[in-house]
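# step 3/5: fold
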Amino acid sequence: QVQLVESGGGLAQPGGSLRLSCAASEFTLDYYAIGWFRQAPGKEREGVSCITHDGLTYYADSVKGRFTISRDNAKNTVYLQMNNLKPEDTATYYCNARRLAENYWGKGTLVTISS
């Protein structure tokens, strides 16, 4: 069964770091654009970062300079390194893989930033 599984969420303090992982099963991420999205309680889902199949990266202004997206095709995994975390980064983070008409979502991992 094709699926994306996010991991690495949890509780961190303001200024801390977390690394999220998005692992794919039953398909290869190599030719997909991978995006990280987040949804805070009571808010709409928003795009955080994405990486194209050939390595181009994009970031929302709110995370630019703090988050880094990367992919390890050998491990069939995409990462989101999150540094200098802020309370407003608290949300459920979702991974998305897209190529042509194919569009897959993970179930999300919760990130809570609190002291």
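# step 4/5: annotate
The radius of gyration is 13 Å.
# step 5/5: archive (pending)
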